[in-house]
Amino acid sequence: MNIPTEPMDTEPMDTGSDTPFALPLHRVAASFIGFSALPAHEAEERYQCALELQKHIQRTNKKFHLRLDHAVAIMLADLQQLKKGGRLWAGPSCRVPPYLMEKRLNAISPLCRHYMFHLDPKNLGLPIWRHAVPMPLSPQLNPEDVPWDDGVDAYEKAVAYQARFKTKSNLQRVPLDKQRMEEAECRKRHENKCVVTGELNPRILWIIPSTWNDTVENMNATGDLQSGCLALTGIDLLDEPNPPCSAVELGTTHESWNMLPIDPVLYNYLVDGWCAFKYLFHKEEDDNSNSAKVTLEFHWMPKLAPIFIEEMDFRENWATLCENMGQFEDCRPPHGLEYGQLRDKSGDLLESGYRIDIPVPRQYVHQFVSGIKVHWAFIRFMSLFGATGRPWVVLDDDAPSEEEHLLEVAGNLLEEREGSSGERMVV
Predict the structure, then answer these.
(1) Cα separation, 72 vs 62, whole angstroms
(2) Is 64 in contact with 80 (CB distance < 8 Å)?
(3) Residue 329 included in any domain
(4) How far apart are CA 91 and CA 357, in angstroms?
(5) Residue 347: domain span
(6) How many structural domains does the chain have?
(7) Could you tell me if residue 260 is inside a domain?
(8) Is 427 a domain residue?
């Protein structure tokens, strides 16, 4: 069966008063630049990209409208991905099929949620995260065998099933002993101290989560979503050294270079999206230690109003997102210090902008830096979505009935946490 499509729309985009894109670009951009942390030229460039993406996708899907998750992705995407040849560039000579561009946009939000779901392994068994548990696709006919009368939906399901990520089924789960051995090596390298506070007996934070690729099932779930990473960050999870996503090998990131020893209180903040590490630069040590020094910068995330994915008045909501971007600058610790107060190695209150130097074996610097860039991009995405401290509430259009329930659960959870002394409580 050949998928039926509407004729390609080559007419100019409607700019009447009933469209959210009614104002000329320079006037729209000027209306929000004053609130944004983005440079004026970059704000315009990202806005232009959004317009072009919507117009490009509407060539074959006239009902398509950018949603808020798409806007967040465009706001935060690596700028090179919005330029000619980038994964999200849809300029006049773009040759990427509109359906594929739509797929790229739609993959970003689920992948970021997938990251937060797995960042703390305990999340996998929590009721508040049940909407994030991947559902295996049901077996389907080959696309060419789908009867015409079954329609486009049946054809698309068949295509999705055929294109699903398929890890070799005979691969064995990564042994827990392997994970514990690498965690012990990480502790040894950092003298069993938190890299931020200097406190002894830290927990181990996996930058690429351990359960992303420890079993065939988990690898398949990650593989089905991995395309969103390249569009958002420019990092290909399939094509890195020690690729986080592989159809032929499990546990490629189950190594000490993918870990940081973290104060237990700070760990709670990190896995709930209150903060993140930003890569700044690295340099090789002058001695013969075969080590490089990677400099990271710690940042708190703002707690913004939660956003649920829906069609949007693009101009109005883009201005709001730009204004929210300004709240990421020099963000203060969370009001009430949800899990407890934290001090850096100098004894000062832990603030945004605090820098740390991480020793990393030279042969693994690229992998470590890529992992940090993924970590930074995904947590910022969730924060701009209003998910700081409550990453489980971000929903996609596959689970609209969960919204009211999850907001209620999240509210109860936050109330229970008040007055706690660093305990990360769950329901």
Answers:
(1) 22
(2) no
(3) yes
(4) 40
(5) 98-133+173-417
(6) 1
(7) yes
(8) no
Tokens of 87: 């994964």
> In 3D, which of 128, 204, 118, 132 has the Cα closest to residue 414?
128
Other C-beta atoms within 10 Å of 1: how many? 18
Look up the pTM and report it.
0.84
Structure tokens belonging to residue 152:
């486009």
Tens of pLDDT, residue by residue, the chain (427 residues): 443 333 333 333 333 333 333 333 333 444 443 344 677 788 888 999 999 999 999 999 999 988 888 999 999 999 999 999 999 999 989 999 998 899 899 999 999 999 999 999 999 999 999 989 988 777 777 777 778 877 777 877 777 778 789 999 999 999 999 999 999 999 999 999 999 999 999 999 999 999 999 999 999 999 999 999 999 999 999 998 899 999 999 999 999 999 999 999 999 999 999 999 999 999 987 767 788 999 999 999 999 987 665 656 677 778 888 888 989 988 999 887 779 999 999 999 999 999 999 999 999 999 999 999 999 999 999 999 889 999 998 655 444 344 444 444 444 444 434 333 444 433 3
**Within-domain flag for 233:** yes
User: Token match 């946009």: residue?
Assistant: 105
